[in-house]
Each structure stands twice: as structure tokens, then as C-alpha cells.
TrEMBL record:
High-level lineage: Archaea, Methanobacteriati, Methanobacteriota, Stenosarchaea group, Halobacteria
Pfam families: ACP_syn_III (PF08545), ACP_syn_III_C (PF08541)
Domain Beta-ketoacyl-[acyl-carrier-protein] synthase III N-terminal: 115-183
Keywords assigned by UniProt, alphabetized: Acyltransferase, Isoprene biosynthesis, Transferase
InterPro entries: ACP_syn_III_C (IPR013747), ACP_syn_III_N (IPR013751), Thiolase-like (IPR016039)
MF annotations from Gene Ontology: acyltransferase activity
Source organism per UniProt: Halovenus salina
Listed name of the protein: 3-oxoacyl-ACP synthase
Amino acid sequence: MANSVGLTGYDYYVPENVVTGAEIAEESGIPKEVVVEKMGLAEKRVCPPDEDHATDMCIEAANGALADAAVEPAEVDLVLYHGSEFKDHIVWSAAANIADRLGATDAYATESYTLCAGAPVALRQVRAQLVAGDIETALLVSASREEDLVDYTNENASFMFNFGSGASAAVLEHDPDRSRTRALVHGSDAVTDGSFSEDVVMPAGGSVAPPSHETVEADDHTLDVPDPDGMKERLGEVSLDNYLTVAEGALEQSGYEPDDIDFVAVTHMKRSFHDLLLDRLGLDPESDGYYLDEYGHVQSVDQIIALEEGRKRGRVESGDVVLFLAAGTGYTWAATALAWLG
């Protein structure tokens, strides 16, 4: 395992509050069967208004991941937050807050944003640092409660009705002992199509439209899709191919063939596209992945949840090739391959 990077521990946290697909259907006016079957949302977890902020959820997941890895906070060299930009405060370092609260006194803290494609990209970034010898132990944390930014009466934003809340954490180490290693982190790939950069926006709150009485009264502080039909049409032309491109690229960088994939932990999406994507990867959607219809889409937390749910069901076993596969508005598609050791 010389010069290898190992995933030595991970965990996730979701709040207790549950919103069902039926409740979303009632609030939005969309038929229940569309929300539950087409959107693939039986239920999801949401945060109470004054609890479970992004850092609170990250602390819960991080404590679990560190315990799983048998790593003390003081041994961590890097805390990387790769979750939602919607966090406890704006223009603020969640990573620094998390490091301090964990007691990671020797770590430096930084943040990386690739929105919903964040998990594979964060693994790629930190693996490179570990291989270069810049650090020895890293803690990756992510959280999202962007459900707060969804207006269920805005039909244009309906593809975001699946947004749920939660957090994940993972410990990566340089040349860890095999007995403590869950998986080896291998190659990655990513591609961005910036023509989608303004297709999903929160109209107010930034420098273009600073917060004001007018923006609040106009309800401009929720997520919106200015041209949903145009976005859907253009995305439909490229999304599947880009998913397949980054999957193949990550496998090639890892010395694998497409036929080597055993399990895919992928972003939550509508059920039909999920099944099509796994089928095009030569996989069985029922046994070679985990569909997140009981969680919804928890931004870059999805991959860790899917991995653990798959592992608990016996779908991830020692010797398997696991692919973290994701896409995020912007639009970026990304993948990272792991060799599962168990």
C-alpha cells in the first residue's frame, strides 16, 4: 500500500424531522404519484428552523467518522468543508468553526465548493495532497439544508423539491495500516459545462441584488430556475454522456475497465434517469446501487449515505470497485473510484 490513500472512516447524520412525498405533493399541488414515483421521493429529512445548522450536522458526522477511523481530532492535518454555501452565516468559514469545535488544533481548515458534485472532487483534491506529502490525515465534511431555500409553490423550481438535509464526514489518510482501511481512493475525473452557470440561482442576496425590503417582499431569497424548459432541454442533451464520460475517466485513471464497477454511489435524481444511468454503466439498479428515495438529494452528502446503505444491504463487499458519481448545478459532473477493502 506504499504511497496509497485510504478511506479509514466515515459516517453521516440526518435530522429526525421527516417530510413525506405526499406532504410535498399537497403543498406544491403536484400529484402524489409524480412526487413519489417520478421524482423518486418517498420522504426526506429536514432541519428544524433553529437547530441542526450546517456545522452542527458536520460535528455529528465528523465525530462518528473519527471514531470509525480510530483517529483523534488532534491528529488531523486538514479539515475540508465541501458542503453547501448556504450555512450558518454568509461570508464565513464553516470549516474553521468545525475544526475548533472538534478540537482539531493542529489542522488548517479550508472550503471547496462544487455544489452537488462536491464529494468526488473533494476526494480528488485531498488525495493529491496526501500523495504529495503535504498532509498525512484529512477530515472531509459536508452538509446541506438547502431545503430551506425551496419554495414549493414555485413550479419552476420543482426539480429541487427533493432537497433534503444532512451531513457526512470521511477520514482520509496517507499509507494507513490495512487493518484500519475501509477503501483505497484511486483516480478521478470531472467536466464542467459553464453554459448552465445561471440556470439555477437565488436571485437576491449577492452583490448583483443585495438584500433589501424589496427583495424580501418579492420572495427573491429562494432558489429559482429562470428558464426551466430550456434548462431541461439542454441538460437532457448532455447529462447522460457527461456522467458516462467522467465515470470512464475515473476508472481509466484507476487502471480499471467499465466492467469492473460493482457499486455506484450516485447523486439522487429522478428514478427513471437513475435506472437508465446504471443500466448504461452495465449495472443492475436494484443491486449495484442504492436509490435515495428515503433521503432525497442531500447535495454532496449523497455518496456517503448511498455507500453506507449499500454496505448494510450487502451490496458492497471486500474487493468491490465503488464509484462515487455526482453532478452539480453549474454544471459539473465528477467521479472518483475506490477499491473497497471492508
